[in-house]
Design a protein that fits this description.
The protein is mainly α and 67 residues long. It is built from two helices and no strands.
Length: 67
């Protein structure tokens, strides 16, 4: 679990911090991508978009999904 948190959560913070610093040099956008794990509700995901709700933490299937 600490490894997943370190890579996913802390790593994302580092990327955002870098983009904020580079914004002064014309880095104007950050495109964030994720895996299906954030919305996985135990069934196949078909035609999902950004309006699909996130899974609650208690439904996380592993530490990666939870982070």
């Amino acid at each position: 679990e600490p490894l997943c948190n370190g890579v996913n959560v802390q790593g994302a913070r580092v990327v955002v911090d870098c983009c904020e610093r580079l914004a002064r040099q014309r880095c104007l956008r950050l495109v964030f991508l994720s895996s299906y794990n954030v919305c996985f509700h135990g069934q196949e995901i078909v035609l999902a978009d950004e309006a699909m709700p996130y899974s609650p933490p208690e439904e996380a299937t592993d530490c990666y999904s939870l982070s």
